[in-house]
Amino acid sequence: MKVPVFAEWSPVLANDCENQCLKNCSCTAYAYYDGIGCMLWSGSLIDIQKFSSDGADLYIRVAYSELDKKRDFKLVIAISVIVGSIIISVCSYFIWMVMVKQRGFKKKSNDMLPFKKRSPEYSTEVPFEDNLNQVKLEELPLFKFEKLAIATDEFNWTNKLGQGGFGPVYKGKFPDGEEIAVKRLSRSSKQGLEEFMNEVVMISKLQHRNLVRLLGCCVDAKEKMLVYEYMPNKSLDAFLFGPQKQKLLDWSKRFDIIEGIGRGLLYLHRDSRLRIIHRDLKASNILLDEALNPKISDFGMARIFCGDEHQANTRSVVGTYGYMAPEYAMQGSFSEKSDVFSFGVLLIEIISGRRNTSFYNDEQSLSLLGYAWKLWNEDNIALLIDPMISYQDFRSEILRCVHVGLLCVQEFAIDRPTISTVLSMLNSEISYLPTPKQPAFTQTPKNLSSQQSQSKCSRNELTVTIVDGR
């Protein structure tokens, strides 16, 4: 059958799907579909069709007394058709009204089907199966696996753009010439399934010029993929730390990138309908379009704050070594100020052209943050600036940015400004800047390399998935 609409998903295996339905008194039917999993329905079963092939077996719950009675099948079919037609008509009108209110999402291809889900009104640490059960209808194109395979030349290694904890990312091109980036869930990834659902729930509801745009997703057979707009200049780290591309970033362009990242973060924290903490802001997660405009990407680790919630705690610390705020890395506590810390690290990296996660001053065992703090106190900040930047031409503006960056990476969250204040400081809307206190993580232990070999925290490219907060 073509299964009914308005399903609730459960992450259980095929053998447990029936028990999952039987345990719920309101469950009226269930089905298990490879690539999607266990689906449950409560109430009316709407828009059922019989297929000659494919589809799924649909198991319908009936009263025990009905199992042994003979039925008048013609009457049942006639009533079902009449009732079904009425329900379909009502639902069609409702769906049409919703589409009009959302200003007419239009399907551009027969290979794209509407996929809807519910706004995730869950707190920061609700179990994954509960998050899945709260997925409801929100329009998002669902691509067929075959279309994405053709677009990426069967996921040819020559089209591979990168590799992360989620899985590989491939460049693709549709027949109409539209270029895409396809993030493919690795079957061996333990973190990928939760990241996949989290990113679909998050980014499908976000629209901002400094956030990467999600075009759709694929849930086909055992494949799960996210389809994004293609960013021709890839990620910021390729420009900041690549000798050939580094010279393309003059100070004006770097400042535009800093502002763009700040505006994207402000949208996540304050201006979107969801309050989102990114938790993995770093140079490799900032993508650049053809004009080098920044777009924040990778929302697999992001969490939603509900209502008046300002802080949350977790035992599963996720993020990247060198960008995590101290209260998060050490205690599992995160808030908007955690993202502000990461933004401060990123700001100092953009100014200096050096990675925070690979800069070690051997003489004094200083990290990049410690080195910046030392030069700030010595009034010798010129040594920190990337030689590719004309420091003397933009001296006051660069000094202000370093000042703001040091305010962002202060050890205690209460001392850090909000991202809205940061933007006002950068644009000189706030003239007086408080004196920064010593940043967190200024020292680099001499045995850091041995520590990192045992740590689950990554230094740059990999992302931490499960680490118990201390």
Automatic annotation (TrEMBL):
GO terms for molecular function: ATP binding; protein serine/threonine kinase activity. Signal peptide: none annotated. It comes from the Eukaryota. Residues 1-63 form the Apple domain. GO terms for cellular component: plasma membrane. SUPFAM superfamilies: Protein kinase-like (PK-like) (SSF56112). Gene3D superfamilies: Phosphorylase Kinase, domain 1, Transferase(Phosphotransferase) domain 1. The chain crosses the membrane at residues 75-99. This is Protein kinase domain-containing protein. The lineage of its organism: Eukaryota, Viridiplantae, Streptophyta, Embryophyta, Tracheophyta.
